[in-house]
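[step 3/7] inverse_fold.run input=structure_tokens len=526
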């Protein structure tokens, strides 16, 4: 072979290598159609959060999913014809972009709303799943992902009944070089999709969005793949609905040929107004915006050192363990990472766990209570009474109950007689308590009875006597919990006393209001 021929062959090989390399690094361009519809058929109850869920999904895809604004379409309260028209317009845009250059197209379609096993219900119109899947398969996009959060949507994946669909295995690489269709549904073919007033959204979409914002990043590479997101949403949806009317099972159908890799979100993307909250310890967390009276920002179960992308602001972070709950406040700043570790969190008092309904495994907290009290004179002319109390307090979520025994004495004298009085009593109370940080305030009612034994010394004959009194009244209660198992409390009350007293005309029932004050300790034992 001549030198010229050899040089020409080398040049051709170099050119072919460059062309192959160019082909290998095709641009991955993403498109998304996000549909939310609260209203279905006329006989179906309107959903509360389907359109809210769609907004959340569109926001995440635009911020971290690599979908540019011009290729992200959000449809709210639209009918079937509008959805079909937009899908056709997006497909035409994909064809145009692919014809203009070396583009690999990813199309993500999300639907939240009413549906049955055959069709989406869009404001009184229906869009059959069979037709929609046919059009989606025929799209010019190389990879299509269809996410459905609707009742009985598992029929689309041909999963019959409430059978779990385990996560699939795909790799974390954004160079797709494949084609096909993946479908993820929020429920199996026979199940309803459920919304949560507390989460202000559906269980499935809440957990899927949390997954895409970092909760599912098990590899720690700050990329959330389709496999990671589905596995997380699947597990957490089952966990969240396990105490609801029925368990909801997400399903999937995965038919992508070639290299089956799809990154849903890239958390290295910088977004204005967002920062990171890094949860250093593995566990289950609930994050509230502001405090626990604010909206739930996220409910997640994560591995150690998991970052979550959140709006800047102050959050209450609550970690729920097997036997305890921990809380702290954290401030998320734009473009910065705020770390939260269990070692810096405060353990929540036992009574508060129950009253707020956040106890890990119990619905009551029992405590031994002891204290001292001072009461104004129980009977006319008997003087103030100093008492000691001992009893039990049971904290339940709606109410706290108290049972106490008490003993006290008082003395009174005048020119004719000296009186010594002993009091043996019991009482029950029901309190409604409200927790404010480490402090608790509340009110309630109580009722009880006392046996009042009197001994008199006088210049004449004055026999000992006893008197049974009944009492009832309102109670004001305040407490402080310096540690989870101990509360220091004070109380004030105004009891109405009813007693038989001897008067000049005979025996009569005497009613009087008696102020009362007490203080003590409550030691939680179980």
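[step 3/7] decode complete -> sequence:
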């Amino acid at each position: 072979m001549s030198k010229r021929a050899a040089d020409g062959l080398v040049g051709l090989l170099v050119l072919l290598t460059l062309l192959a390399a160019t082909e290998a690094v095709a641009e991955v361009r993403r498109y998304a159609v996000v549909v939310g519809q609260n209203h279905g058929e006329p006989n179906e109850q309107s959903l509360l959060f389907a359109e809210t869920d769609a907004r959340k999904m569109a926001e995440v895809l635009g911020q971290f999913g690599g979908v540019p604004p011009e290729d992200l379409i959000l449809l709210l309260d639209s009918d079937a014809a509008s959805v079909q028209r937009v899908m056709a317009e997006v497909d035409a845009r994909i064809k145009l972009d692919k014809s203009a250059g070396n583009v690999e197209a990813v199309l993500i379609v999300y639907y939240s709303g009413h549906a049955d096993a055959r069709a989406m219900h869009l404001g009184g119109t229906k869009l059959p799943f069979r037709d929609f899947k046919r059009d989606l398969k025929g799209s010019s996009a190389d990879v299509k992902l269809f996410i459905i959060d609707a009742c009985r949507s598992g029929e689309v994946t041909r999963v019959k009944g409430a059978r779990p669909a385990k996560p699939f295995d795909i790799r974390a690489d954004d160079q797709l070089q494949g084609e096909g269709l993946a479908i993820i549904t929020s429920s199996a073919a026979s199940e309803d999709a459920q919304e949560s007033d507390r989460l202000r959204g559906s269980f499935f979409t809440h957990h899927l969005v949390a997954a895409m914002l970092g909760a599912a990043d098990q590899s720690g590479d700050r990329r959330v793949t389709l496999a990671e997101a589905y596995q997380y949403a699947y597990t957490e949806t089952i966990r969240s609905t396990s105490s609801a009317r029925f368990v909801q099972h997400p399903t999937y159908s995965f038919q992508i040929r070639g290299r089956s890799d799809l990154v849903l979100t890239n958390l290295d993307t910088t977004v204005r107004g967002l920062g990171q909250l890094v949860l250093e310890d593995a566990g289950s967390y609930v994050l509230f915006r502001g405090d626990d009276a604010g909206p739930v920002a996220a409910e997640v179960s994560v591995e150690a050192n998991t970052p979550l992308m959140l709006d800047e602001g102050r959050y209450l972070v609550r970690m729920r363990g097997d036997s305890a709950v921990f809380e702290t406040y954290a401030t998320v700043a734009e473009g910065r990472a705020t770390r939260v570790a269990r070692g810096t969190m405060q353990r929540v008092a036992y009574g508060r766990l129950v009253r707020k309904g956040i106890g890990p495994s119990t619905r009551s907290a029992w405590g031994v209570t002891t204290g001292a009290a001072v009461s104004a004179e129980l009977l006319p002319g008997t003087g103030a009474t100093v008492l000691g109390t001992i009893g039990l307090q049971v904290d339940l979520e709606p109410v706290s109950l108290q049972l106490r025994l008490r003993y006290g004495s008082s003395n009174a004298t005048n020119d004719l007689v000296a009186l010594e009085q002993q009091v043996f009593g019991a009482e029950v109370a029901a309190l409604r308590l409200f927790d404010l940080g480490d402090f608790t305030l509340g009110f309630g009612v109580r009722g009880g009875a006392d046996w009042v034994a009197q001994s008199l010394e006088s210049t004449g004959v004055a026999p000992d006597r006893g008197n049974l009194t009944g009492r009832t009244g309102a109670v004001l209660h305040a407490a402080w919990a310096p540690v989870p198992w101990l509360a220091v409390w004070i109380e004030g009350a105004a009891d109405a006393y009813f007693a038989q007293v001897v008067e000049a005309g005979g025996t009569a029932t005497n009613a009087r209001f008696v102020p009362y004050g007490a203080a003590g300790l409550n030691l939680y034992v179980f």
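[step 4/7] annotate
The chain has three domains: 24-266, 274-347, 365-524.
The chain is about 20% helix and 45% strand.
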